[in-house]
Amino acid sequence: MTGHVIGLNLSSSCLHGSFDFNSSLFNLVHLPRLSLSDNNFNHSQIPPNIRNFPSLTHLDLSASFFSGQIPSEVSHLSKLTYLNLCCNIIEIETSSDDPQRLLKLQPSDMRSLVQNLTSLETLSLSFVNISSIMLVSLTNLSFLTSLVLKKCDLLGEFPVRIFNPQNLKVLSVRYNQDLTGYFPEFNRSSPLMVLKVTFTRFFGQIPSSFEKLNSLQELDVAQCNFSEGLVPSALGNLRQLTYLDISANKFGGPIPDSLANLTQLTVFRISTSYLTGPIPSWLGNFSKLVYLDFAFNRLIGSIPASFSNLKNLEILYLHSNNLSGVVEFQMFQKLQNLYQLQLNRNNLEFVTESSIIMNATLPQFSILGLNGCNLREFPSFLRYQKILKRLDLSRNKIHGQVPNWMWNISKETLIFLDISDNLLSDELPVFIPWVNLLCLRLSLNTFHGRLPIPPPSLLEYGATNC
Q: Whose CB among 17, 86, 131, 169 lies 3.0–4.6 Å from 124's, allowing a Cys bridge?
């Protein structure tokens, strides 16, 4: 019995205020594991006293409002196998929604880190500014199993050799918009489980050898510069995939039937692409699917009736395609978890049967887009909606007056309502009832009388030709 503390986990402990550099914490010189994550140290610097822990193998200072330069003393902790300094940021309200990053790592300190911490298995520096580093230096970390460098302002070409380590399971370099790179040929021995390069300038092709990544569970290559062509059929061999997003590249053509093998998917996104042909009915076999997004494509045909089997579906985006045919609300009535449904800008005819709608069996929507769905009246199921935030019923053929119950739906939550470009008439109420409404569009109808008085929260009020 040595009497030494073998681990100290103070994560999520509501610690608040400046970090005490003279804390008795630094007397625990034999400490192998230290976690201070998810606290608020009020922009304190990471203390150079960190060198007092030469036995540390695990260090987690993530999401704790540390700021400034990461001290070179971190690179003296030569026994580290786990280092997490990610997400020390401040959320600020800007047009870009880009958080302010608090930590920065100098090139010389990064060189020392990769030269001295050769036993590192997990390195997470997301939201740390490491724009000045030479990316090739990362290849020295040959024992890495996880490398996460989200939004680090990385520049230049990502070293293809980093894909080679036999132990690498997680690689994420998302949201480094000036980072280029390409995928190498993979072999069957690769243990990769997570691969994310979203919103980078990765280019070239997704090689056919991807089919050898038998352990891959999450693949996100959205918003890159991959070569124009068909959706890679090799992806259909990745039967362990739970997350697949290849949106906003130049992939086109029909959705390949080889993807019918991906029945473990919970997230499936191929939006803003050049998909053609019908939506395959085999998607109804994806019983674990939570999020399906095929928006902004050139898909045709009807929405498969098999979608009613997707009992776990929460988000369905099919807007901005060339879909047609009758869509019966009864299909979605069976999907009790569905809370976002976007069918806007297609050639669909959305039909509801009032007699079969019962409040107890309805999904509760927060976002509902039925723009241009050939509606002739306000769907009666709307009267039971309590948590709507965004409702778009524009460009339909709804005629007559707005029913009284319509002014009572989701009073506390609705922030966006568009009923423009219909055939609505009669008078409107004196006051708009939604207390948090930000946008109201009434234009291109035949209302008469005075316009309603909006709530103070309103930012956009469209009422031309109404």
A: 86
